[in-house]
Amino acid sequence: MSLKFLGRYKDFGLLLLRVGIGVMFLLHGAPKLLGGPDKWTSLGSAMQYLGIHAFPMFWGFSAAVTEFFGGVFLILGLFFRPACFFLAVTMAVAASMHVGRGEGLMAASHAIENGIFFLGLIFIGPGRYSVDRG
Hints:
- By secondary structure, the chain is an all-alpha fold.
- It has one domain (25-124).
- 72% of the residues lie in helices and 0% in strands.
- The chain has helices spanning 10-34, 36-44, 56-76, 80-100, 104-124.
- The chain starts with 9 loop residues before the first helix and ends in a 10-residue tail after the last helix.
């Protein structure tokens, strides 16, 4: 049985990936965004694993905004490549935090996988079914 005919639906497959991952990041980022300054400071403390100790609330707020609105932009295919770039950077920081805490590669693997996914999407673009239509 050949499934070659599915190649005609690449843009639909890309839409499925964008919406699925976008919804998950929107849901993952919402509690962080709504968590307020204490949550943002806790989240932003991950920057210490990159040697950055200043402004943890700013970095945490930035990560929460990136996850929430990055999810929205993925779903819509709007500001697609910049959103993927910032999401990839956020995932790199998350991975460095897990490794820096001594949790190992298995704990960091989800962030690494998402980061690779976002880097790949930068090259692929949002597809036909998007606001950007890139």
